[in-house]
Write a structure and sequence with these properties.
Elements lengths: L1 E8 L2 E8 L4 H8 L18 E4 L2 E4 L12 E3 L12 H8 L9 H14 L5 H7 L11 H20 L1
Helix pairs in contact: 2-5
């Protein structure tokens, strides 16, 4: 059975016809052409497919696209604005938070969600926020440093305003 999916995707309203059993990750990659969201384990265990749905991190490989009707979905593809990286994207770049890069989109989105709700997280907060995301290349030190860098950048901006 097909349904009309109306949602806001990376700030843009969209209406698409989707099969009722289409996963959000497949919708994003195949229908919307947004390939930043990765398919890793395809079972909700690695977090590479993490996106924000109404501001909350969710695994797109476990979410039916149709359940996102009237929701706001954000992917790593839509974070930067006018070619300017967000604080968390700069953090991953500056602090070498990416190794092979496969987990990076999910890590970035989970970190983005954390910093929106807690702009000054401690290391335990960061570890808890990233607990549903697996990186097979690092010991997570550089990833945690990337989030701490982003938090410090956000704090600087707030002080300057």
């Amino acid at each position: 059975m097909k349904t009309i999916l109306s949602l806001t995707l990376n700030g843009q309203a969209r209406d698409d016809v989707v099969p009722g059993n289409m996963l959000l990750v497949d919708y994003l990659r195949e229908k919307a052409g947004l390939t930043g969201t990765k398919i890793g384990c395809d079972g909700g265990e690695c977090g590479a497919c993490t996106v924000l749905i109404d501001g909350r991190p969710r695994h797109a490989c476990l979410t039916l696209a149709a359940t996102c009707k009237n929701s706001s979905v954000e992917t790593v593809d839509g974070l930067s604005k006018d070619g300017r990286l967000t604080a968390i994207q700069r953090g991953f770049n500056e602090k070498l938070g990416s190794q092979c890069g496969f987990c990076t989109p999910g890590m970035v989105m989970a970190s983005e969600a954390l910093l929106r709700r807690n702009p000054d997280p401690n290391e335990d907060d960061i570890r808890a926020a990233l607990a549903a995301n697996i990186c097979r290349c690092t010991g997570y030190v550089k990833i945690i440093e990337a989030v701490q860098f982003a938090a410090a950048e956000l704090q600087k901006r707030e002080v300057a305003v």
